[in-house]
Amino acid sequence: MTIAFPDAAFAPATDTPLILALPKGRILKECAPLLARAGIHRSPDWPHPSWENEDSRHLRFPTDDPRLDVVRVRSFDVATFVAFGAAHIGICGNDVLMEFDYPEIYAPLDLGIGACRVSVAEPRATSGSDDPREWSRVRVASKYPNIARRHFASRGVQAEIVHLNGAMELAPALGLTRLIVDLVATGSTLKANGLVETEVIAKVTSRLIVNRTALKTQPEAIGAWIARFRAALQA
Asked: Does domain 116-204 have CATH number 3.40.50.300?
């Protein structure tokens, strides 16, 4: 369903389009219906595959609204593009926001998509063998070094973080670390590799994020897109 937006929701046209940063992968597929309800569609004049096509080598795409272009980047990079002003608005998980904690980012809307969690996991064979509250140090594999370090520090545990970008589940089995902190959706990958989820650090959903400076300097334009997404969520 496409929403009929009131005239007040539309911002004046500008010479330079706003940039919406979208994440590659699963979240891109999940947010497609929301984008359509918000009135964001591919440009009819664009001769190449649109942003939904993961095989496309293009990274920037015009939409049917001359005031908005889409860029497609790695999910971890969406927040960085928005924080540094390369993109004005974006969609990313609050796991990324927790990890980087950019003060330049404002997250006005929880989009309710991409539900998963950041969790601690360890080998099934050693789970429950001792009390984590008695630990003073632990080695942890994670692509979330800041989240992991803060989590264990809050328990009085000094965490040595081994920063990995993938295949986290191998780390305990190969003796690299005792624990992992990773994003978990179904838990099937953990189970397949002999791990169990022992603690949920944070529940994760995707958020609409905006650059604070852009919101101050272009309040009508940015505010109009926030209003569109809010209306799309309520549809």
From this structure: no
